[in-house]
Amino acid sequence: MVSEISDIIRDTRAYACLDCGRCTVACPISHYDPTYSPRKVVYNAVHGQDTEILRHEQLRSCLTCAMCQERCQSGVQYTELIRRLRTEAHLPAEEGQCSHGGALQSMMHIMTAPSLKQNRLRWVTRNLKTATASDTLYFVGCQPYFDVLFADLGVKTVATAQSAVKLLNRLGIVPALLPNERCCGHDLLWTGDTENFARLAEHNIREIAKTKAKRVVTTCPECFLTLKEVYPHFVGELNFEVVHLSQLLADAVAKGQLKFAPLSDKVTYHDPCRLGRLGGIYDAPRAVISAIPKIELVEMSQNRKNALCCGTQAWMNCGTVNKQIQTERLREAAATGAGMLLTFCPKCQIHLKCALNDGRLNEELDLQIQDVTVLAANSLSRQEV
Amino acid sequence: MTRSKGNPATDFQPRIAGFVCNWSAYSAVEMAGASKEEYPPNIHLVKVACLGRLHPGLILKAFELGADGVVLLGCPPDDCHYEFGMAQAKEVFAQTIKLLNLLGIDRQRLALLEMPLGRGDHFSRKVTSFTRKIRQLGLSPLSPAKG
User: Fold this and answer.
1) Strands B43-48 and B16-21
2) How far is CA A193 from CA A9, A91, A302, A326, B32, in A?
3) Do the Cβ atoms of A103 and B57 come within 8 Å?
4) Do A278 and A155 fall into the same domain?
5) Which residue in A107, A155, A183, A187 has the most chain B C-beta atoms within 10 A of its own C-beta, making it the best mutation to test that interface?
6) Domain residue ranges of chain B, discontinuous segments joined by +
7) SS3 string of chain B?
8) Which of A16, A151, A355, A363 is the most buried (most CB within 10 A)?
9) First to last CA, chain A
10) How many structural domains is chain A composed of?
11) Averaged confidence pLDDT in chain A
12) What pLDDT, on the 0 to 100 scale, is given for residue A347?
């Protein structure tokens, strides 16, 4: 155990910590829960309290939003430290209490069953052109499941999938879809369950190979980051490119291939952590939004690399602290004067909608939450370019 | 428990999880025992304070752990100890059916049954017929034996 922890400390540069506490100042959890401190987690890991740290429930508190490592002057990779420590701490029979009754964890585990045959493509309406094999594959993610689980919040992430295909079709792309796509495994990875994560990854890679796709497009930033950055470590080099839809759309906008009808709305954009801080994509979503004539894009005070997290991660935890972070984000969005809060992540949408529907916040804030994909598809000009 | 892949109608011993409400439904289970009603030994009961306490997560967990069928034993709505419990259970049931459809798990593997107060005969009859149905459906696609 000790040697494994020391490997983690070395690999994530935790040893380089100067104990300055910038991470704790930046951490949204620490802001509302003074007992949580990334600085202390690093300190304890480095100073030999290894086994204790693995059993500490605060190991589960981290949002892995990467705000701390953005500020760290020593280059400590805190999110990777947390992920690796969680992997060490993971015991199959000892899963912690998860939010939503553990339904999402169960669905991910169920999806590791090899003989499962899902019915996940019922959202594909007749007006959408899709194929079984194509150069471009659209990796849908868990959106059909989210809409069932979070119907009471008015979550419509399937609209994101439909909009994505509509946009791709407009660009002359008929994407392949996987009838038996599995969860990308992001949340299993970040809860430390690498064994089941690898099962999902291997399955998805096999299915993608069947379509002969050279490019995989995702709308979910978690799928994007996991396929692009993590799959190669588990299944070897990928023989396809992974792009986020925002990149593809921004490119098309720059080339004048995509035209939108005017919309006189004031909107603001919430950077998802997997797309922004961890994926480095800040400009593409903004370029897509700004391509809509007459739209006014205003920034929240915490934006781009300083963007506040949507408050929860990997369906591991949700409580007062998480709600306070979400509320802060919603108030920040409303303070810009925008009537619409845009994001590019189904989970940000779910978490922020949940907080907005909670208590009286909905009455106080006049705010709509929408995915950029849906806004872009709804704003498509009538004429083909 | 031995799990055979032979003739599904005869040899197959399904594993069935049953969530049972503490009130009318459980009284039916107790009465079945007291009056020595016969029913298949495949069902493993988990008592809950009210069926309205269920969440899709609990039901999916049973499937994840290899249950071939899951039965929810509740009370007639008019007899609900908490008034709203059975209505809530019906919502959870409907939501879980949608998730099972997406996952490709036959929806017949999940049933919601009302158990009138103290009716042991009703319990044994319903559980027998549910077990027969699961026997016909065979192993769950999530069963390790299907691997």
Assistant:
1) parallel
2) 20, 8, 32, 27, 42
3) yes
4) no
5) A107
6) 16-146
7) CCCCCCCCCCCCCCCEEEEEECCHHHHHHHHHHHCCCCCCCCEEEEEECCHHHCCHHHHHHHHHCCCCEEEEEECCHHHCCCCCHHHHHHHHHHHHHHHHHHHCCCHHHEEEEECCCCCHHHHHHHHHHHHHHHHHHCCCCCCHHHC
8) A355
9) 60
10) 3
11) 94
12) 97
Same domain, A246 and A265: no
Taking the model in full, what pTM does it have? 0.94
Question: Using 50, 70 and 90 to split pLDDT, how confident is the model at B10?
Answer: low
pLDDT at A92: 66
* Nearest-neighbour CA in chain B from A121: distance (Å): 9
Q: CA of A149, closest CA in chain B: separation in Å?
A: 7
Q: What is the pLDDT of residue A383?
A: 66
Contacts of B103 in chain A (CB under 8 A): 107, 110-111, 116, 118
Residues 6+ apart with CB under 8 A from B121: B32, B35, B37
Residue A49, in any domain of the structure: yes
**pLDDT (0 to 100) of residue A385:** 46
Cross-chain residue pair B102–A114, CB shorter than 8 Å: no
A119:B102 CB<8 A: yes
Residue A94 has pLDDT above 70, yes or no: no
Residue A281 pLDDT exceeds 70: yes
Answer with the residue of higher pLDDT: B2 or A25.
Answer: A25
Q: CATH fold of B16-146, please?
A: Rossmann fold (3.40.50)
For residue A227, what is the DSSP state? I
Three-state DSSP at A193 gives coil
Residues of A in contact with B106 (CB under 8 A): none
Q: What is the pLDDT of residue B138?
A: 96
Query: Above 80 in pLDDT, residue B9?
Result: no
* A119 close contact with B: CB closer than 8 A: yes
Integer CA distances (angstroms), A366 to A248, A335, A341, A356, in order: 31, 10, 10, 10
* DSSP state letter for A272: P
